[in-house]
Amino acid sequence: MDGDGDLDVVAGNLSSTVNRLYVNNGSAAPFSGVTGVNISDDAHNTTSIALADVNADGDIDVVAGNSGGVNRLYLNNGSSTPFTGVSGINITDDAHGTAAVLLDMFDPDADLDLVAANNGSPSRLYLNGHIPPTPTWTPTFTPTQFPSVTPTPQPIPALDGSGALVLLAAASLILLRRARR
User: Fold this and answer.
1) Contact indicator for 123, 147 with CB cutoff of 8 Å
2) CA distances (Å), origin 94, targets 87, 139, 154
3) Exposure pattern of 98-107 as b/e (b: 16+ CB <10 Å)?
4) What does pLDDT average to in each consecutive run of 10 residues of the chain (181 residues)?
5) Any bridge partners for residue 5, and if so which?
């Protein structure tokens, strides 16, 4: 997260507590003496974290899946204190009981899109309309078009009809499998 090549830890917190970053100290005891730093001042019920370079600037960003609130994006500022001065950006204004988030490429434009598996409401796909410096997502499935999360896995057809991606929704988990022909 801080660009030094060591694996760091991002903790999503429940009970409307701020999410935190723990920066690896590079030693044999990588988190000894490490104090977490706030990702931002946002406090939500975060149930899932996805890490990836969402805006293609070379830095790892954070997407927080929040239960009962909007999902948020935190863009890494590229420094050794990657979230200092960073404010969360709403993915969209819709709020659901998000249980899991996944970033991957679901359309052919080569930027990362987001799937949110929701409890009690249909899961959602958000296609990234990457416009630097801030990605913008557009919900592409309405609740009636994307199956509700159920205990029994339900296959969702490939988004572009090619058979390249197969999604399964089961309870609060999304599995992504690239189908091989």
Assistant:
1) yes
2) 18, 9, 23
3) bbbbbbeebe
4) 88 88 92 92 92 89 93 92 90 89 85 86 82 67 44 43 41 36 36
5) none
Contact predicate 58/2, CB 8 Å = no
Nearest to 169 by CA among 107, 99, 105: 99
E strands, the chain, in order: 9-11, 17-22, 37-44, 46-52, 61-74, 89-104, 113-118, 124-128, 137-139, 154-156, 165-170, 173-178
In the structure encoding, which two tokens stand for residue 23, read together? 């920066």
Torsion angle, CA of 116/65/139/121, rounded to 10 degrees? 60
Tokens 């205990």 locate to 151
CB atoms within 10 A of CB 50: 23
Residue 20: Cβ-neighbour burial (10 angstroms; 0-12, 13-18, 19+): middle
Answer yes or no: are the C-beta atoms of 82 and 2 closer than 8 Å. Answer: yes
The helix, strand and coil proportions of the chain, stated in percent and rounded to the nearest 5, come to 0, 45, 55
In sequence order, the 6+-apart residues with CB closer than 8 A to the CB of 135 are 54, 55, 73, 111, 128, 129
